[in-house]
Amino acid sequence: MIQSMTGFGKVTAELPTKKVTVEIKALNSKQLDLSTRIPSQYKDKEMQIRSRLLQTLERGKVDFSIYIEYIGKENATQINPDVVASYYYQMQAISEKLGIEAPANWNELQNILRLPDAVKTEPCEADKEEWDVVSKTIDDATQHVCEFRIQEGAMLQNLFSQKIANIAQLLKEIEPYEKERLDKIKGRIQDGLEKLKLQDYDKNRFEQEMIFYIEKLDINEEKNRLDNHLKYFIETMDKGHGQGKKLGFIAQEMGREINTLGSKSNHAEMQKIVVRMKDELEQIKEQVLNVL
């Protein structure tokens, strides 16, 4: 069964002092386009994470993020008291020198905290026990993405099967008009010759030219090729995931045969059927871009 490139997975793990949330979003793309947002504690694991995502997700525009929420007393972000005090005393000295009011309230202290180095971040590298938990969380989120893709893939496969069946049915609806079309073409040409009052034209040569002209309008090859493409599309879907590009190529070939049918039809009802075929095919082409 085919899979969609669209997927989403979000898993949260709780550690003694923090919550770690892994979120993965995937959309369609020609290849794996991976964007990561990883806290500094786990930066040394980035290549390992990328490798695992590449092997599992294969294709798609993937946004991978790890979020940390501290729930204990410990916090990686702390006020640097020495720097804050230095800023404060310097501001007092400048205030006295300039003769302006010195900062003395809580709001002013908040402004000081916005100055460079007033707040320091001291990330501590994750130990093995913590990384094992985070690693499992990544695997769980990735698995959720894969399950999402399978569900979406099943919906796409049902849609494609329906559209392929519709095109196959429309192909059968062309048959009753084929002989009628050729008879009308032949009659139209004969009427034109009679209007020209050419009584002495070579009727044998006329028949030969008609046969040649009708052969050019014959659509049996196009019908057979389109029928084969329809069957091949279904066979390719049944081979499993990773068939997205191949299905796209088959859809292109189907489009060529349908276009040729339209250009050769020379019949109003046949052209209407071809337009309906194109509508079904466009819906396939639009959705096949999402197939893994």
Description:
This protein has 292 residues and is an alpha+beta fold. Helix content is 62%, strand content 14%. It has helices spanning 46-57, 81-98, 106-113, 128-195, 203-216, 220-237, 244-265, 268-288, and strands spanning 7-14, 18-27, 32-37, 60-70, 77-79, 119-121. The strands form two sheets. A four-stranded mixed β-sheet has the order 1-2-4-3. Strand 3 (32-37), helix 1 (46-57) and strand 4 form a beta-alpha-beta unit. Helix 6 packs antiparallel against helix 7 (244-265) and helix 7 (244-265) runs antiparallel to helix 8 (268-288). The chain is elongated and about 120 Å long. The model has no long low-confidence stretch (mean pLDDT 83).
Quickly give the structural class. alpha+beta
Instruction: Return the string of H and E elements.
Output: EEEHEEHHEHHHHH
Report the radius of gyration as a whole number of Å. Answer: 35 Å
Main sheet characteristics: 4 strands, mixed
Strand content: 5-15%
Terminal Cα span: 11 Å
